[in-house]
Design goal:
The structure holds two protein chains of two kinds.
Chain A (H helix, E strand, L loop, with lengths): L6 H13 L21 H9 L2 H4 L12 H8 L3 H10 L15 H11 L5
Chain B lengths: L5 H14 L15 E2 L6 E2 L3 E4 L3 H10 L4 E4 L14 E4 L6 E5 L4 E5 L4 H10 L2 E2 L11 H6 L16 E7 L5 E5 L4 H6 L8 E8 L1 E2 L2 E10 H6 L1 H7 L2 E6 L5 E10 L4 E4 L3 H4 L12 H13 L4 E6 H5 L7 E9 H17 L9 E5 L15 E9 L5 H13 L3 E2 L9 H7 L3 H11 L8 H7 L2
Parallel strand pairs in B: 3-5, 4-5
Antiparallel strand pairs in B: 1-2, 6-7, 7-11, 8-12, 9-10, 9-11, 13-15, 13-17, 14-15, 14-19, 16-17, 18-20, 18-21, 19-20
Classes of the chains: A mainly alpha, B alpha+beta.
Chain lengths: 119, 452
Amino acid sequence: MNNSLKPLAFLLFALSICACSGAIQSSGATGIPFSNDVTDAAVMGKWGRSCALCHVNGEAGAPIVGDRAEWQQRLAQGEESILQRVLEGYNSMPPLGYCMACEVSDFRAMIGFMAGNNQ
Amino acid sequence: MKNITRRSFIASGVKAALVGTAAVNSAATAQSTPWSNWSGGQICQPAGRYDIASEEQLIDLLKGTSGPIRPIGSGHSFSPLIPTDGHLVIIDQLSGILDYDSSTLEATIGAGSRLGDLGAALEEIGQGMFNLPDIDRQTLAGATATGTHGTGVSLQSLSGYITSLRLVTPEGDIRDIDASDGDLFDAVRVNVGALGVVTQIRMQNRENYKLRKREWAAPTEDILANFDELAASHRHFEIFPRVYSDYSSVLSIDETGEPIGQTIIPDEDVASIEPQPLGPNPSPLERLNYNNARAANTQLTEAVDVSYKLLSNLRNTRFNEMEYSVPAAVGAECVREILKTIYDQAIEVAFPLEYRYVSPDAPWLSMAYGDEPHATISIHRVASEDYNPYFDIMEPIFWKYGGRPHWGKLHSLGHRELSQLYPRFKDFMEIRESLDPNGRMLNQHLKNLFDA
């Protein structure tokens, strides 16, 4: 993922993943715990209906999907810390980030995806 | 959930989910992620989640499973409508505009659609919703189920604009319900998620339109004394009475044909003028003087945009809220008593109140049900703070003026009081009993509401 990729382009990319079943293999980035496969259409569908509300345009200060520098700062705080923020809410982000259908495994995949971990 | 803190509850859920071991408490054996509402004030450990992709899936689920379920929109209700140790039913895949009629200006909408996604979609077909609430992250199903409303003495709650809807009953049967169904129609339009799962809603809309929004500050007493006239002379008119202050923020919104843009921009030099800062532990009088000085620097702003962009906005600060409606004739008196009580008891709160009128409404459980307009009054508390001490003092004031609670906001009333406040409440209870005799849709909060 190019850091300069526009959010809209990233969203279109993500939705294109949702729309097809072809596998895109993880690049196996090192040092980042969230490395789930983003090819799961169900997970990406949940992402598009929840996280995307704020993480595409950076609404309310949310880190933008694919902005690796921003996400690396957060990932450096540790996996459990980030998950806890998602589950409890953090700043403007409500608990569960508007994803009522998400389980922890979904959040792990989504965070990895937004951090550009799979590109 | 009384014996453990919210933080330890969620932390234990995270731990269980991460290591994939034992459940977080003895009542739940599933590994489903703990649920919390938007504010974080309501939590539960559901047995699982059903992420519904179609009506057929929903019907199969309801016919093929047993046990308690709670349908959920976006989790924006502050009241405990959702917490369950059964299953959550998520409907946000049932979304989008399914059908529309350009001659009647109606649109059939997937009930899981978020209000914020509907504005642009409706604009594309030349339609706009008559009104919207302050926050547009809610689903249409959730907003209408709780009687959510916007501002405007001539504008009904969102539920008032429903012309038909599809309900999948707790037994998995489809019911398409409209005005020809009489009482059932008036019961189901504000249903508190207790009658089944709503999958489609047909809304009466209007042609799309632009609005001009003006915001300024004015003495609260001046506005309250003329509120009826002001409310009648604007499409939307509301105030945010500031606590420890003689002033309110004032908001008027009217239809316009003017070009889109920021038409009056505040002078930054004036806006940046701040009075002498308050010292530690200021007295109510010191706060009053400080806030009045700040209000004097508040300038008029004005903007024009398409309706859905001006009626709702994003809330960056999470909070808990209590909202009651009272007959419009006593609304100003109720606001005065709340402001005076905050001042006299030196209650530590910074959030302003919100005060507005809504039109008489036909759905039985609408806050404005009946023949007269109602004033709605909201109080807020930052989500990280305990709301109980403040709300416990305020709630009896609402009761004194005949207040009816908003279903999605915090209140402590049960079926006895509610039966006195909502003339058709017992009729609603009978319909609920007939549609869900086994109480599958009920959690403890709804059992208290409906004596079930």
